[in-house]
Design goal:
This protein has 334 residues and is mainly α. It has 14 helices and no strands. α3 packs across α12, α4 crosses α5 and α13 crosses α14. The mean pLDDT is 84.
Amino acid sequence: MQRAMSLRRWALVMTVLAAANLAVLLAGIMIGEFPVPMWEALKSVVGLGDPAYRFVIHELRVPRALVAFMVGAGLALSGAILQGLTRNPLAAPGVIGINGGAAALAVTAIVAIPTFPVAALPFAAFVGALAAALLSYALAWRRGSSPMRMLLVGVGIAASANAYITFWVTTRDINSVKQAMVWLMGSTYGRTWDHVWPLLPWLAILVPAALIMARRLDVLKLGDELAIGLGSAVERTRALLLLICVCLAGASVAMAGTIGFIGLMGPHIARQLVGSSSLRLLSASALCGSLIVMAADLLGRALWPPLEIPAGIITSALGAPYLIYLLYRNRRPG
């Protein structure tokens, strides 16, 4: 009975989250410097209506909204996996250096090679994220990988990556770092179909892979000794989940820059809604993350038009107090 109620709750939450995502996506293609009435927006989505509206919707707003959706889902899903792997509710890709590694190599590509193709950015960011994750994994290894050691080492790697990025953007010609600076703030501004298509295959493969691995993540949450006792190949499973986490974060960071706190807020909100069972948590986290990023992008456009506030600034303004709240709530006496 309790399991059936839990499944119904999960289905209800997923339905509400999906409806909220659709509503924010629709608002995102309607609102802007060139407002589009709802009926015209709906007609334009299916290729009908006024040609001017169709151009604004199809070429400017729909791809931007889709990038925001996919980036939010990827970052939140990555954070949920990482929190399960480390058994730490404050873990996130940005905290342990995965985002920093992705950003470091992507910034290097943008600044050092002005003609670097957009389609190759996810691969560059993935290589940087993978290098950071492997370094964290290797330095944390001592007769096995320790989640806590990985977390502590990752904090140092994140700080080093930030120092490296700062060096690049302060020592290069100002014209060559403008794009990198906009990208570092975390924004979906100017995203087109050229950004959607490179990102889509990554999520189409990695999201189902993460959901398939959810049961194994549940076993890892029990602790290494108990997981081994239950027959789990702990190190292999942890490495595979970490690879999925790295790929999701790297591809997302490549397309929209370092939009902060999504990997922290998305899983926490989802956990409050559906509990800690990994399959439900991962799926709800993805929709929570996409909703946050799309809403932040919409809010950034609507606050002071025609000026736009990058989505990364909005999420950081919300995420920093949220992190303080989590630290306060999880404090322990003594």
